[in-house]
């Protein structure tokens, strides 16, 4: 998986995973979908899903999602949601925000996404009986 210089994909502390801004690069570091926000969103969210799986999470574990979009317009949100429906569930979506930005780390990038995920406890502590 390609990474931006100077960034770690994720850090996990206990049951919480902090994912850095995932961008629309393929595994070779090539930009996916130049000029196409939906294609880039699909790749950025696929990269986010991969990082989450490696950390032992899944999209439903996300509690906070931040989406950064170059030259954001309100109609951009529909394309982003359509590209990554697993990250925008109707029933219980994560807290989040979409921010318009002037630029991202590499020319041609239109979107980056970061997240905080909280894994469900893998076990329940034993309750002592008195």
Account of the protein in words:
The chain contains 2 helices and 5 strands. The chain has 130 residues and is α+β, with helices and mostly antiparallel strands. A 5-stranded mixed beta sheet has the order 1-2-5-3-4. The N and C termini lie far apart (51 Å).
List the helices and strands and how they pair.
Blueprint: E1 10-13, E2 16-22, H1 37-54, E3 62-70, H2 76-83, E4 95-101, E5 111-118
Name of the CATH architecture? 2-Layer Sandwich
- Placed side by side, the strands forming the largest sheet appear as 1-2-5-3-4
Secondary structural class: alpha+beta
Count of discrete domains: 1
Number of helices: 2
Oligomer: single chain
Task: Provide key terms for this protein.
60s Ribosomal Protein L30, Chain: A, 5 strands, single chain, 5-stranded mixed beta sheet, globular, 130 residues, 2 helices, alpha+beta
Task: Provide a quick synopsis of the model.
By secondary structure, this protein is an alpha+beta fold. It contains two helices and five strands. Strands 1-2-5-3-4 form a five-stranded mixed sheet.
């Amino acid at each position: 998986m390609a990474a931006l210089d100077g960034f770690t994909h994720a850090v996990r502390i206990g049951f919480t995973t902090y994912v850095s801004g995932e961008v629309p690069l393929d595994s070779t570091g090539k930009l996916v979908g130049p000029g196409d926000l939906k294609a880039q969103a699909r790749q950025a969210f696929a990269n986010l899903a991969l990082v989450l799986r490696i950390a032992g999470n899944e999209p439903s574990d996300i509690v906070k999602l931040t989406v950064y979009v170059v030259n954001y317009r309100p109609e951009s949100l529909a394309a982003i949601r359509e590209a990554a429906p697993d990250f925008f569930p109707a029933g219980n979506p994560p807290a989040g925000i979409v921010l318009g930005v002037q630029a991202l780390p590499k020319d041609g990038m239109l979107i980056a996404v970061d997240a905080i995920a909280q894994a469900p406890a893998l076990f329940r502590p034993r309750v002592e009986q008195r």
